[in-house]
Design goal:
The structure holds two protein chains of two kinds. By secondary structure, chain A is an all-alpha fold. Chain A has 15 helices and two strands. In chain A, β1 and β2 form a beta hairpin. The radius of gyration of chain A is 21 Å and the shape is globular. Chain B has a two-stranded antiparallel ribbon. Chain B is globular, with a radius of gyration of 19 Å. The chains are: A mainly alpha, B mainly alpha. At the A-B interface, α7, α11, α13 and α15 of A face α3, α9, α11 and α12 of B.
Chain lengths: 326, 262
């Protein structure tokens, strides 16, 4: 049966990404009508600081979730990277060394996760609950109730500087990585393999894909980008406490799932994640403008996460019962 | 899978508490106990419903409700602390009442452990849970309603978390938004150390009790041997990892298939 015009229309336009784009436009209209200053280029530029660091971690995490795994230790990795950067900086190291230490810590942490899942054969949820506690615990153990803030002068440039005009370094980094990841995931053989691994790992293994190698690489990449987020965040704040980025794992995972990535793996797109990051960033920015405290936003984040997984499940049940009746 | 039900324990605990201190500053102990059990049970049931009826992944549901519940405590309390002078003497004294040389708090835990040892061995619900965790498909084919059993497990978990919320607040005589933050990780660590498998299907009440004692002893021993209390979380993490690695190896020995390797 060939789909009619309506069918083609529905398939092309009723996609998750289109819905996200519509929500985004609605947000723009809403906030622009609430505040006359909202549509200012510099206001919008400020708003991007709300989500770029999280969104940079969301990109590799989306691929990891598409591959059927999950990493809930990302925020703890950010904290650990930030602490190790702070310690390096307090010995008087230069900006380059500090950044390398931050990225290296993230990569190492991600590789530990990857090794636990591939060599240790621990389910990724449990492995990363463990490493989340371990990494955050290490940050607390090393730092206790102290604060590190002896960063070299040039270090602030990463999180506070602007590339051209109102485009911040963070935003530029996010946009370029989004393009890179989008091309990688949707237009290369490796990207195809990631979808296959997520949809059916056993079949992929029988088809000759090095499933564990993909998993390990994705965990390592997620760690590395958490390290990058730590560089940006630490540079922006100029100080490190062990509680840095507390609760970010929830927001980052929510971003990915809101972007239409299936929690069961095998489905999702980078475009969706980018749109979800924008929707998410604008909402938190808007709520911030309305003086809503962070902890109340967490009600919103939590509900959003559950709603986004619950709605497809509800629709699926409705469709099933309708087919059973007809 | 019933260990997963414990993930949002800590969050529910405070919530249950936040609700009841505000509602009942002068009430007797019995209504407080009932309300904490009911509030916790209700919140647990909500998690359970999402997992049972919509088949949502438990980790996503409990991560979500964890932040929702904690946010709601803030909304209810407006971020204020509830201090001892706002609680009735009976309210704070209850867990410290002494009976045959032990506090009521200790008696309550002994009673609960005994109840769980009995329930996990002798009740149909427990058999259903073990079956659902061990092999969900086989459980379904043999007529076990795994979702329903899990729903009940979530509800019980919530109710007990609610009760702990009351006990916690009564013992420390203060309630605030961030109470028991990160406690879920200690609880999960205790379960895993106690031999509850992450993959589901195995575990015992005695094991969990030993796991709790292990964590508790480390917690009280750290300051005695001169190690900063900030190491607690790191040790929990290391212990969780060792426990899950060991249980993953055990599972491998039981069934070496390509599926397990994929």
């Amino acid at each position: 049966m060939t789909p009619g015009v309506a069918g083609i229309f529905a398939r092309r336009w009723l996609r998750w990404e289109t819905m996200l784009a519509a929500v985004l436009v609605a947000e723009f209209v809403l906030f622009a009508s609430i505040s006359p200053y909202f549509l200012d280029v510099y206001t919008l530029s400020d708003a991007t600081f709300n989500f770029t660091e999280r969104a940079i971690v969301a990109l590799p995490l989306a691929m990891l979730i598409i591959a059927g795994e999950i990493d809930i230790s990302v925020a703890a990795i950010i904290a650990l990277s930030s602490v190790s950067m702070g310690l390096t900086a307090s010995t008087g190291a230069g900006t380059g060394t500090v950044v390398c230490v931050g990225l290296g810590t993230g990569l190492a942490a991600g590789m530990i996760n990857g090794a636990l899942v591939t060599i240790g054969r621990v389910p990724s949820i449990v492995a990363t609950i463990g490493t989340m506690t371990l990494f955050r615990g290490a940050a607390y153990a090393v730092l206790g109730d102290r604060v590190l803030k002896d960063y070299p002068p040039g270090f602030a440039e990463f999180g506070q500087g602007y590339l051209v005009g109102p485009v911040s370094n963070e935003l530029a980094l996010f946009v370029s990585f989004a393009l890179l990841f989008g091309v990688f995931l949707h237009y290369t053989r490796w990207g195809q393999a990631i979808f296959a691994v997520g949809a059916n790992p056993v079949a992929s293994r029988f088809a000759g894909l090095a499933v564990n190698r993909y998993r390990f690489a994705l965990f390592a990449a997620t760690g590395l980008f958490s390290g990058l987020a730590a560089v940006l965040l630490t540079s922006r704040l100029g100080s490190t406490r062990p509680s840095i980025a507390q609760g970010w794992e929830l927001e980052i995972i929510s971003m990915v799932i809101l972007g239409g990535v299936s929690v069961w793996g095998g489905k999702g797109s980078i475009l969706g994640v980018v749109l979800a990051a924008l929707v998410f960033g604008l909402i938190t920015f808007g709520l911030g403008l309305m003086n809503v405290p962070g902890i109340v936003m967490s009600i919103f984040t939590g509900s959003l996460l559950i709603l986004v997984v619950a709605v497809p499940a509800l629709l699926g049940r409705l469709r099933l019962s309708r087919e059973a009746n007809s | 899978m019933n260990w997963l039900a414990r993930l949002s324990d800590a969050s529910r605990r405070d919530f249950a508490f936040g609700a009841l201190t505000l509602a009942l500053p002068g009430g007797g102990v019995v209504p407080v106990l009932l309300i904490s059990l009911l509030a916790g049970g209700f919140l647990g049931a909500f998690n359970g419903l999402l997992v049972w009826k919509l088949r949502l992944p438990p980790i996503v549901v409990t991560l979500g409700t964890m932040s929702i519940y904690r946010g709601v405590i803030y909304l209810l309390s407006r971020g204020a602390w509830v201090n001892e002078n706002e609680m009735s003497p009976a309210f704070t004294a209850f867990p410290r009442l002494e009976l045959l040389g032990l506090s009521l708090l200790a008696w309550l835990s002994i009673l609960l452990v005994a109840a769980f040892i009995f329930a996990l061995r002798r009740t149909r619900l427990a058999r259903d849970l073990y079956a659902a965790g061990g092999n969900p498909h086989a459980a379904e084919y043999s007529g076990i309603d795994a979702g329903r059993a899990q729903f009940i497990a979530y509800t019980i978990c919530g109710a007990i978390a609610g009760l702990c919320g009351y006990l916690w607040v009564a013992r420390f005589a203060v309630a605030y938004t961030d109470i028991a933050l990160g406690f879920e990780l200690s609880v999960i660590a205790a379960c895993l150390i106690g031999g509850v498998s992450i993959a589901g299907g195995t575990g015992s009440a005695v094991g969990v009790l030993l796991g709790c004692l292990f964590i508790g002893i480390i917690r009280s021993a750290l300051p005695l041997v001169g190690i900063s209390a900030f190491w607690q979380m790191f040790i929990n993490g290391a212990v969780i990892l060792v426990a899950v690695l060991l249980s993953a190896r055990q599972r491998d020995r039981q069934g070496q298939t390509l599926e397990a390797r994929a």
